[in-house]
Amino acid sequence: MGIKYRRGYKYQLAEDYTVQTGIIRNMKPRYIIETEFITLFPDGTLFIRKGYACDGASGPAIDTKNIMRGAFIHDALYQLLRQGHLQIERREQADKELKRICLEDGMSKVRAWWVYRGVRRFAGFAALPENKKKILEAP
Question: Are 138 and 1 in contact (CB under 8 A)?
Answer without folding.
Answer: no
